[in-house]
Amino acid sequence: MEIIKKTESPLKRQLLMVALLTRLLKRVNKRAPVIIGGCALSYYSREVYFTSDIDLAYADREALDTVLKSIGFEKEGRYWAHEGLKVVIEAPASSLLGQDSSIEVVELGENLQCFIIGIEDLVIDRLNAFKHWKSEIDGEMVELLIRRYRNDLDWSYLEKKTILPENNTLSELLELKKKVDL
């Protein structure tokens, strides 16, 4: 916990916190949580975007609650907060959608790693917010991610997923890609 307190970068502090959670959950034979949402966006955007809370996909809420409580977090509504660490955690999703979702593994030191939603699934999530919630900032973030990772993105996966009825964002994806390619 001391390393988290001493870390200046807010994003690195968040990643270390999730790595510690991962280690503690694995000790009791539980799966690792996956960082989603704004914290994942902060990671992939290299902190161009920043959020003060950590969103996790995690199915076993009871195990997560037990571990968070054991290291000094207090429940405040749907959030868990640690006053001393200035860290807030929410687990809004029980899992990532789809069995073919990719995961980025971030190594933070010996026995310290955390898992982040794959960039393609993050792009799809933000495309949905852009289209369905009319969130302009999410559109800008998708454009930034496409610009930064254009050659690394799995475009066939993106097209396959964005055409699904629950997403229906293929035209937005192609429009933003075209804008970046200009």
Explain what this protein looks like in three dimensions.
- This protein has 182 residues and is α/β, with parallel strands linked by helices.
- It folds into two domains: 2-117, 2-Layer Sandwich (Beta Polymerase, domain 2); 120-181.
- The chain is 49% helix and 19% strand.
- The chain has helices spanning 2-6, 10-27, 37-44, 61-70, 119-132, 136-149, 155-162, 170-181, and strands at residues 34-36, 53-57, 74-76, 79-82, 87-93, 103-109, 112-117.
- Strands 3-4-5-2-1-7-6 form a seven-stranded mixed beta sheet.
- The chain starts with a helix and ends with a helix.
Q: How many DSSP E strands?
A: 7
DSSP strand (E) fraction?
15-25%
Which stretches of 5+ consecutive residues score pLDDT under 50? none
Order of helices and strands: HHEHEHEEEEEHHHH
Mean pLDDT: 94
CATH fold call of the largest domain: Beta Polymerase, domain 2
Name a few traits of the molecule:
182 residues; 8 helices; alpha/beta; Beta Polymerase, domain 2
Task: Provide a compact summary of the structure.
By secondary structure, the protein is α/β, with parallel strands linked by helices. The protein has 8 helices and 7 strands; from the N terminus they run H-H-E-H-E-H-E-E-E-E-E-H-H-H-H. The chain has helices at 2-6, 10-27, 37-44, 61-70, 119-132, 136-149, 155-162, 170-181; strands at residues 34-36, 53-57, 74-76, 79-82, 87-93, 103-109, 112-117.
